[in-house]
Amino acid sequence: MLTSNSSFLGDLQEPFRWIADVTVMEAFESGVLDLPDFFFTGDDYRYRFEPGAKQRFLDLLRERFNSAVMYKGRALKWDTVIEQKTTELARILLSRCANVDFEEPAPQLPRVDDRELRAKILALSQSEARRLGIGKSTLWNMKQIANSSRALRLYEKSRKKIDNV
Questions:
Q1: Are residues 5 and 20 in the same domain?
Q2: Is 58 found in the same domain as 2?
Q3: H-helix or E-strand spanning residue 9
Q4: How many CB atoms lie within 10 A of CB 24?
């Protein structure tokens, strides 16, 4: 149970809340989580995870925290960066350090799925795809995904070909 310092702990997590937020969005976009994975208990007005869905989400979250980021010239995992930032903050509170920088490292959130890309794929004719070197089955698959609500992930080669349209 948290003590009177719980508001301080809440403040400490804020600079890194985006990690959980992005993971939730990725979980729904990729299909790792879906609405049937949740249920309403009714007695306490809360939604709950199905146990299997909870484990899938935790695996995805663990993967995100274990992903590498460049910090002070080194590739570190996000959980290590968070630990270092917490230590820096503690040093400030103990008057052993003058400041802490919560802006570095900045999150890198490349987005490869956008409406413009989906529109290009859906407008691509079979003959144009063939000219670009995109096979019939690849085009069919890309159009199926582009026309759905699923996350659109393309191989780099296919992405470059589509960008040239």
A1: yes
A2: yes
A3: helix 6-13
A4: 14
Contact 90, 97 (CB under 8 A): no
CA–CA distance, 60 with 78 (Å, rounded to integer): 14
**pLDDT 10s digits, 38-89:** 888 777 778 788 889 999 999 999 998 898 888 888 899 998 988 888 888 8
Give the pair of three-digit tokens for residue 156: 């780099």
Question: Which amino acid is present at 88?
Answer: E
Q: What six digits make up the tokens of 11? A: 């403040």
What is the pTM assigned to this prediction?
A: 0.61
Dihedral, CA of residue 93, residue 94, residue 96 and residue 101, to nearest 10: -20
What is the C-alpha to C-alpha distance for residues 65 and 59, in angstroms, rounded to an integer? 10
Which token pair is 79? 């959980």
For the chain, what is the domain count?
Answer: 3
85 and 136, same domain (yes or no): no
User: How far is residue 144 CA from its own chain's centroid?
Assistant: 23
